[in-house]
Amino acid sequence: MAKLKYDKGKLRIFERNLRDLSPAMRAIAGVLLDATERAFDNEIDPWTNRKWKDLAESTKQQRERIGRWPGRILEQTGALAASHQIGWDSRRAWIGTNLEYAEYHNMGAGVPMRRTIGISPKDAHRIELLLKNSIK
């Protein structure tokens, strides 16, 4: 019968790291925030990296009349971009906003879809590496 050899110290560290992933979750929350900030900065869908649909000419004209055009597509006042908050605990990381209208833009409900929350394949890879490194 084969004997299994293992390092009890390493096993304890691995077990502890699996119980509390807070450090990794904090870092993952940072990745989520980076993706959202990148979406606003570049006016791109964080999932696909495609540019957001441009504003309608009528919307541009309306904004120009009130002194808010030229400008950024989803940043008339900056409230939406500034409203995103991150959080984490020992098992989860999240990002969200308390502005109800954000959902309409993110889902394309009644307005063109201009997602602000999501991750790219590159972000997903960063998250995967963070998790792998946290449970070693």
Topology:
Layout (H helix, E strand, L loop, with lengths): L7 H12 L2 H21 L14 H9 L13 H4 L2 E4 L4 E4 L5 H6 L13 H14 L2
Antiparallel strand pairs: 1-2
Helix pairs in contact: 2-6
What report would you give on this structure?
By secondary structure, this protein is mostly helical. The chain has one domain (21-134). It has six helices and two strands, in the order H-H-H-H-E-E-H-H. A hairpin with a 4-residue loop joins strand 1 (85-88) and strand 2. The protein is elongated, with a radius of gyration of 21 Å. The model has no long low-confidence stretch (mean pLDDT 91).
Summarize the structure.
It is built from six helices and two strands; from the N terminus they run ααααββαα. With 136 residues, it is mostly helical.
Tally of DSSP β-strands: 2
The SS-based structural class is: mainly alpha
The end-to-end distance, rounded to whole angstroms, is 28 Å
Q: What do the pLDDT scores average to? A: 91
Order of helices and strands: HHHHEEHH
Morphology call: elongated
Radius of gyration: 21 Å
DSSP summary: helix tally: 6
* Low-pLDDT sequence parts: none
Number of structural domains:
1
Q: Main beta sheet, described? A: 2 strands, antiparallel
Beta content comes to 5-15%
Question: Any descriptors?
Answer:
136 residues, mainly alpha, two-stranded antiparallel sheet, 6 helices, elongated
